[in-house]
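Go through this chain.

——
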Amino acid sequence: MNRIEGITRIYSQAPWRKQSQIVGLILVVVVFSTLFATVYLHISARTAEVGRQIQVMQNEIDEIDRMNEDLRSQLALIKSSDQMEQRAEALGFQPVQMDEITFLSVQGFMEPPVMVYQHRPVDASPGIAKLPDEYTESLFDWMRRKTAFYLVVR
């Protein structure tokens, strides 16, 4: 019995060794938790930064769209008939009367023929593309076709 107790005493660990193992395990958990938290914070910060950049760019796009619409409205105002008439009068142009117009005949000029278009009903069926059978058959039709193929092959 003494011999067994001696062997167990030799191979049993000292209390300080058990404590150091527990402390080491706790330190490993703390280090990995800290590492995980650091990586998580880095990814979260980067995601927030990219999200903010996207918001800034979207705001720039919206501002440019507003400027484009403003320019279009200014152009429409400038091209309006009232504005064009005012500018023409400011440049010295005057409205013309029918008796003031002189028509010139030009030798060799041929007036383009007048095109008369007739409304014909259009048949819609030739313009519609027919889908292949593979896209229109059901699952059961496909299975029936495949099993029939394998039955014929055997």
Observations:
- The chain has one domain: 2-109.
- The chain has a mean pLDDT of 85.
